[in-house]
Every structure is written in structure tokens, then in C-alpha cells.
Specification:
The structure holds 2 protein chains of 2 kinds. By secondary structure, chain A is of the alpha/beta class. Chain A folds into 2 domains: 128 residues, Aspartate Aminotransferase, domain 1 (Alpha-Beta Complex); 238 residues, Type I PLP-dependent aspartate aminotransferase-like (Major domain) (Aspartate Aminotransferase, domain 2, 3-Layer(aba) Sandwich). Chain A has 11 helices and 12 strands. In chain A, the strands form 3 sheets. Chain A has a 7-stranded mixed sheet with strand order 2-8-7-6-5-3-4, sandwiched between helices. In chain A, strand 3, helix 4 and strand 4 form a beta-alpha-beta unit. The longest helix of chain A is centred in the C-terminal third of the chain and has 37 residues. By secondary structure, chain B is an alpha/beta fold. Chain B has 2 domains: 165 residues, VC0802-like; 224 residues, Rossmann fold. In chain B, strands 1, 2, 3, 4, 5, 6, 7, 8 and 9 form a 9-stranded mixed sheet that branches. In chain B, strands 14-13-10-11-12-15 form a 6-stranded mixed sheet, sandwiched between helices. In chain B, helix 4 links the parallel strand 5 and strand 6. At the A-B interface, helix 1, helix 2 and helix 7 of A face helix 6 of B. Chain B: Pathway: Cofactor biosynthesis; thiamine diphosphate biosynthesis. Chain B: Belongs to the ThiI family. Chain B: It is found in: Cytoplasm. Chain B: InterPro entries: Rossmann-like_a/b/a_fold, ThiI_AANH, ThiI_fer, ThiI_N, THUMP_dom, THUMP_ThiI, tRNA_STrfase, tRNA_sulfurtransferase_ThiI.
Chain lengths: 380, 405
């Protein structure tokens, strides 16, 4: 099997599964229960929080456990909007966000908030100047992706953070679901107030995630009904998922340290190979993109057909964001980048992990070349 | 990484005559132990300073650790150079430029200090020589001897000259261990850890005493006190012992035999008696606690008068005059606040009567106490049953689930 859909989800590390099983079996008590088993689970939860805080260079009270990226983004965006609407009802984001952010903003628009969607250039990146121009006295939130989930484009988070340091009343939310473990993001240094992370994109398990909420930042909770997570997120904690997420985070950060160049090497290999295949147009910018995502369009070939053809060879890739893949039609992200309807509706995404090898990539390139040639004959 | 040395200056030590060597040795030991976790550091004792060679370690975390050590007045990251005016000038210029780069700092002064009397340039001359050189080799920068943005310290020692532009405040106080030992009564609240911290500030070692009444108080309440003690080890120069006293039986008997309005007074008298015994056993000469005048019922003057009587040991009450907010500030600073506010009941609140006497009479307290005929026996039994836990800086206090992480 050659798995190149790591932006949709990753295969859990073996160690992560071991932890999950052990915790589920031995420490299944509710951390809020008063008995000693509850105490044990609470202790475990606390250690996970401290461990994750340490790995992210933040403090434990800034770690709020969630059910994943979608919840994290919803909680950050709606939570800030509802909590601080008395100060202003203007929000800023980009036109290329993940659906969980994009649709949160759409909902807020229907409830009387005003949203500015910053435009992107042909690489998918927003400009600092546009941000500066959009900030008004009633702006309360700027929210954007770090790494675009479809194209791998990086947004200039550091520079954005610099600009926003001059606007201390505007909260800065970064969706780092795709970037975690792949692209370094020093949360504190960049002046980020809220940051979304999801476990299953870093070889953890589905249903767990973290929303970093800087100390002192208040938000209106999505879920009420308990005092868990500093009253920001009610609900019995998923202790086994959370502890195994702490482990996944530790391992992927080690991998990132040790094997960063590996991802860059296979990305170059992929890019060079794809460029040699006729009718392929690369949508991921060569500079300013993450090392693990490559998006390209194949002229006149329906991407679904290509996916199924690769499937038969035990190679797994995707059309775009898993959360929008069933809608069909053109990619909103690629349209925003001005690539046109045709290119935006024929895109494929390959996303790698530290485990993919050069040999695998070589094979994928060969199969792609062959399948595209075949399909073109049929589809003409 | 610009700075390769740290200059550590002592606080009140310079004043303490012939005890000085003892004080310095204690401090030196504490510093050595505290910095053990950093590789490659070299610590050397000079006449009135410690100099730490960083050997590539970033200075920030080392400074952070040193700021927890009592007896240190200030810490400066420094550059070392040979005792030669040319070299001193050049190095001072590098340090000054680094300190002013990307800031709006525009004024400086040089504070020269020549401890090495054979060096031909004296302190005054150093100021003007180095200051003049800095002025000639920079632009838009002026001298301000009263309120400089940057103070360039030039210290000429026999091991070389140390130049620094930035000074971090130390914790002050006296080195731990020079002031004897006290037993600290730890309930788990906000005040007692702060009292422990302030006691240690005067060089006093502490051992914790906690009263545990299972099943009326939970394991988590005890763990809370263990965690508080663990937090205090940052300032203790190593280990702290925590004595956990089994208190259930005594509390039940007090509830049974003492009128409710006096039960708290008697309970606190008994606690003090037990602590005194533990002090004797562990060679401590005082008891420290977090009492504060007027905060709660047991902390009135009358109440202290009725309770204090049971012991002749000095009772140190470092937070006696502080406002609650002042105490909370300190507890936040030393990292105990978050632990103290965990919501578990402790032995002081569990049997709290609905209307405790705020002005108990000493005579009455004595009389009621006699209702418990075998009190001495019970106290002895509690002392015998003490569980002693040793906490050490950097160790975890909880069960660790290492394989799970």
C-alpha cells in the first residue's frame, strides 16, 4: 500500500494505539469522579496537558482539549465572536479556509456579523497590506490557516502576528491542523491567541484535538454543562484519546526534527516527476508551501476516475479536502487563486508522511504517467 | 549567543562578618545543586561573586534557575576579556551595541570596578576611559550618569575583566541553611506555602507538617499538599521532608467530647502540640505557619492567645500582616496558587462548626481540653503514625505513567 492522503488523515502510530488501549482498559474512570480511580484519571489527564504544553512551549492552562480540528475552529471563531460582539462585530478571514472555518463565518454573517474575506494571489497566499487595510476599530478577530489543506500554501503568520501586535484588541486565531508536525509555528513568538490542532493529522486518533487559548483570552463555550477544560468545553474528557495524542505529538515532533529534509526531498522528487508528465499543471507554489502537500490538475481527466484507477494499484490519493470531497464540482480554494473552473475541477492532492519512501514516490510517478496516458485515450 | 559568562552577586552576605565563609559555602552548594541539570557549566568562586562559564548554554534558563535561589542579589550575563584596556574597550563596545540594537535606548553610563588593585587603571579612570571609547565609536548615543538606559558594568578581577549591560534581580534574602530549621504547618490553602517561601527566604530550612483525616479528607487533598511541597523545593536548595500526620481519630474524639464552639480552638492546640513533638524529633527550633490576623475565625488575637500557649517554640508567622491580595500575589509568583485553589476539603474545614468562637477564652479551652483524658496518648500515637515523604526538586510527585507518554 502506498498511502498519500495524509492530509485527510494519518495512520496512527503503533505506540499511540498501545497507549490508547492501556488507558482505556486501566484508567477508564471519569476524571471528575471523587474516588481514587477518578483521581488517577485526573492525574493522567493533567500529565497529558503538561506534556503537550511543554511540547508546544506554552503553559498547561492554555491547553483546551477538543474533539478535533472542526470543533477547535468552530470554538475559536464562534467563541470569540459571541463573547466579544459588544466590542465590535467585524471579523477577518481569508477566502481559502477549511470548511469548518469558512462555514462558521458564513453562519456568523447570517447572524449580523460582518466578515472580510481577504483575497489570495495565484499562490493562495494573502497579503499583509490587505490585512492592514481591512482592520477597523470594530474588528475583533483575524482567523486563518497556517498551511492550506488543499494546496499546502503557507500564510505569512509571522508577519500577520507582527501587524496584529499593534492591535492588541484583535484576537488572532491560526488553524494549524495541517501544519502541526510538518512546519514549525512558535505560537507565543508569533503572537497567536488561539491555535487549532487535531490529533488524527499527526498519527493520533480521530476525535481528539487541542485548542490553544492564550491565558486571559475569554470565549463563549460551544458546549455547556460542566466545569471541564477551564469551563471552556463541557463534557467528560476523552482521557485515552488525549493521552495518546500527547504521545503522537511527542513522536511527530521528534520525526520532524530528524527527518525534515526527507519530506523536502520527496516533494522535490514528486514535483520534478509531475512536471514531466504531459497535461499536468502544478497548483502548489514551489516556494512558500509546506513540505508534504502537492496539488495538481490533469487536463481533461476527471479526478475521481484517476483516483479509482490508482486505487486498483493500491495507491491512495485524494481530490481535495476530505471535508468537501463529496460535493463534487470545482475547488473553492483553487477558484479563489484564480486558476479557473477547468483547473479547479480537475485537481488531485498528494500528501506525504515521514514514512513515505523515494521508491514509493518513483512507483507512483510511473503509475500516474501510465494511467493518465490510458485515460486520455479513453476519454478523448 | 553573545554572552559566555554569568556574574552572580551576593546579597546581604557582604555584611555578615565572620559568618561569611559559612554563608558563601551554603550558597555555593545550593547553586551547584540547582544548576546540575545544565551541562557544561563551570562555576568558580571569586572574592564576592560567583562566575559561571556558560560554555554554549543559553543564559536565559540558567538565569531563571538562579532567580529561585535565596542569597543572590543580582545576576548579569557577561563577556570576559583579558585585563587589558584595549580589549576591555572593544568588548564593552560589542556589549553596548548588542544591548541597544533594535531598541530606542540611547543613553548609557559606565560603572567600573577594579578589584584587582595591580591593574593600572583605577575605577574612576575606567569610567572615563571606557565611556570615552564608547562615545567615540558610536553615533547618536550619549552619557547619562543618573538615569542611563544601559549601565555598562566593567569589573576587573584577577581572573579577567567581566563586562555586562543587563542585570537581573535575584531573589534576595539569605542562603538556605544558614538560619536553622522550622516545621511548616501546611494545610493546602493559599497562605501556608507562601509562609514557607518567606521563611526560607531568611535562610531557614523547612519541613512540612500536614494533618490528614481519611476518609473525611481525600487522597487528592493530600496529593495537593505533596504537590505544594514539591513546588517549594525550587527554593529549598534540594529536598523538603513532608510529615503527614494521621489525624482522623483525634478529630473524631474532639467532635465527640468538646463543645462545638470550642472544637476548632482545641483542634489547633492539638495540632500545635503534635508539630512541637515533630520539631523536637527533627531538630527544628521553630514552627512556621500561614496565620494571618483577622482573616478567619481562628485567626483573631484572642484565638492565637488561646492556642499559642501550648508551645514554647517560637512561631514564625511571615504573612501575619499581609492582605489576602498580597499573599495571593506571592503565591502566583512562586507557582503555588494554581495548586492551592484545587477544591478539596482539608482537615481544618471538614469539621468546621457552624458557629466557631471567634474570641475563645484560654481558661475555657484548657478546661474543655481536659475532657479528653488520654490526649497525651493520642498525640503520641499520631506522632508514631506519621508518614514522611521526601520531595526533591525536579522529581515528579505523582505516579508517572512514562510508558504512556
Amino acid at each position: 500500500m502506498i498511502y498519500l492522503d495524509n492530509s485527510a488523515t494519518t495512520k496512527p502510530y503503533k505506540e499511540v494505539l498501545d497507549t490508547f488501549v492501556t488507558v482505556s482498559e486501566k484508567y477508564f474512570a471519569n476524571p471528575s469522579s471523587l474516588h481514587s480511580k477518578g483521581g488517577e484519571a485526573e492525574n493522567l489527564l493533567g500529565q497529558a496537558r503538561r506534556s503537550i504544553a511543554q511540547l508546544l512551549h506554552v503553559t498547561p492552562s492554555e491547553i483546551v482539549f477538543t474533539s478535533g480540528g472542526t470543533e477547535g475552529n468552530n470554538m475559536a471563531i464562534k467563541g470569540i465572536a459571541f463573547q466579544h460582539q459588544n466590542r465590535g462585530k467585524h471579523l477577518i478571514t481569508t477566502g481559502v479556509e477549511h470548511a469548518s472555518s469558512y462555514e462558521s463565518f458564513q453562519l456568523l454573517e447570517s447572524q449580523g456579523f460582518e466578515v472580510t474575506y481577504l483575497p489570495v494571489d495565484e499562490t493562495g497566499s494573502v497579503s499583509i497590506e490587505d490585512l492592514k487595510k481591512s482592520i477597523r476599530p470594530e474588528t475583533i478577530l483575524v482567523s486563518m490557516l497556517h498551511v492550506n489543506n488543499e494546496t499546502g500554501t503557507l500564510q505569512p503568520i509571522k508577519e500577520m502576528g507582527e501587524v496584529l501586535k499593534e492591535h492588541p484588541k484583535v484576537f488572532f486565531h491560526v488553524d494549524n491542523v495541517q501544519g502541526m508536525g510538518k512546519v514549525h509555528l512558535p505560537i507565543k513568538e508569533y503572537g497567536v491567541d488561539l491555535c487549532t490542532i487535531s490529533a488524527h493529522k499527526i498519527h493520533g486518533l480521530k476525535g481528539t484535538g487541542v485548542l490553544y487559548v492564550k491565558n486571559g483570552v475569554t470565549l463563549s463555550p460551544l458546549f455547556t454543562g460542566g466545569e471541564q477544560e477551564f469551563r471552556k468545553r463541557a463534557g467528560t474528557e476523552n482521557v485515552a484519546g488525549i493521552v495518546s495524542m500527547a504521545k503522537a505529538l511527542r513522536i511527530i515532533l521528534q520525526e520532524m526534527n530528524a527527518k525534515k529534509d526527507h519530506l523536502i526531498t520527496i516533494k522535490k522528487q514528486l514535483l520534478n516527476g509531475l512536471k514531466n508528465i504531459e497535461d499536468i499543471e502544478i497548483n502548489t507554489p514551489e516556494d512558500g508551501s509546506a513540505p508534504h502537500i502537492i496539488n495538481f490538475s490533469v487536463k481533461n481527466v476527471k479526478p475521481e476516475v484517476l483516483i479509482h484507477a490508482l486505487d486498483e494499484k493500491d495507491i491512495y490519493v485524494s481530490t481535495r479536502s476530505a471535508c468537501s470531497s463529496k460535493q463534487g464540482g470545482a475547488s473553492r480554494i483553487l477558484l479563489q487563486m484564480g486558476l479557473g473552473e477547468q483547473r479547479a475541477s480537475t485537481a488531485l492532492r498528494l500528501s506525504t508522511s515521514y514514512d513515505n519512501t523515494k521508491e514509493e514516490i518513483e512507483l507512483v510517478l510511473q503509475v500516474l504517467q501510465k494511467e493518465i496516458t490510458n485515460l486520455k485515450k479513453v476519454m478523448r | 549567543m553573545l554572552y559566555d559568562h554569568l556574574v552572580v552577586r551576593y546579597g546581604e552576605l557582604s555584611l555578615k562578618g565572620k559568618n561569611r565563609r559559612h554563608f558563601e559555602n551554603q550558597l555555593h552548594e545550593t547553586v551547584k545543586r540547582k544548576l546540575r541539570r545544565f551541562d557544561n557549566l563551570k562555576i568558580s568562586k571569586l572574592f564576592d561573586r560567583l562566575v559561571i562559564e556558560l560554555n554554549g548554554q543559553p543564559h536565559e534558563p540558567v538565569v531563571g534557575s538562579l532567580q529561585d535561589i535565596f542569597g543572590i542579589h543580582s545576576i548579569s550575563p557577561a563577556l570576559r576579556t583579558e585585563n587589558n584596556l584595549d580589549e576591555i574597550n572593544k568588548t564593552a563596545l560589542i556589549a553596548l551595541k548588542d544591548a541597544m540594537e533594535n531598541t530606542d535606548k540611547r543613553t548609557f553610563k559606565v560603572t567600573g570596578k577594579r578589584s584587582l588593585k595591580t591593574f593600572p587603571v583605577n575605577s574612576m579612570q575606567l569610567n572615563s576611559e571606557v565611556g570615552g571609547y564608547l562615545l567615540r565609536n558610536t553615533e547618536n548615543i550619549t552619557v547619562d550618569v543618573h538615569n542611563p538606559d544601559v549601565e555598562v558594568k566593567v569589573e576587573v578581577k584577577d581572573t579577567g575583566t567581566y563586562i555586562s549591560c543587563q542585570t537581573f534581580k535575584g531573589a534576595g534574602g539569605l542562603p538556605i541553611g544558614v538560619g536553622g530549621k522550622a516545621m511548616l504547618m501546611l494545610s493546602g490553602g493559599i497562605d501556608s506555602p507562601v509562609a514557607g517561601y518567606l521563611t526560607m527566604k531568611r535562610g531557614v530550612r523547612i519541613e512540612g507538617v500536614h494533618f490528614h483525616s481519611p476518609p473525611f479528607t481525600s487522597e487528592r487533598a493530600k496529593q495537593k499538599v505533596v504537590d505544594l511541597t514539591q513546588e517549594l523545593t525550587r527554593f529549598s536548595g534540594g529536598k523538603i521532608k513532608l510529615h503527614v500526620v494521621p489525624f482522623t481519630k483525634i478529630q473524631q474524639i474532639i467532635k465527640d467530647k468538646i463543645p462545638a464552639s470550642y472544637s476548632m480552638t482545641i483542634m489547633r492546640r492539638v495540632m500545635l502540640k503534635i508539630t512541637e513533638k515533630l520539631a523536637e524529633k527533627n531538630n527544628a527550633l521553630a514552627i512556621a505557619n500561614g496565620e494571618n490576623l483577622g482573616q478567619v475565625a481562628s485567626q483573631t488575637m484572642q484565638s492565637m492567645y488561646a492556642i499559642n500557649e501550648v508551645t514554647n517554640l517560637p512561631i514564625l508567622r511571615p504573612v501575619i500582616t499581609m492582605d489576602k491580595l498580597e499573599i495571593m500575589d506571592i503565591s502566583q509568583k512562586i507557582g503555588t496558587y494554581e495548586i492551592s485553589i484545587r477544591p478539596y476539603e482539608d482537615c481544618c474545614t471538614i469539621f468546621l462548626p457552624s458557629a466557631p468562637k471567634t474570641k475563645p477564652k484560654r481558661e475555657k479551652a484548657i478546661r474543655f481540653e481536659q475532657n479528653i483524658e488520654n490526649l497525651e496518648e493520642l498525640i503520641e500515637e499520631a506522632v508514631q503514625g506519621v508518614e514522611t515523604i521526601i520531595l526533591e526538586e525536579g522529581r515528579s510527585t505523582e505516579t508517572t505513567f512514562e510508558e504512556l507518554f
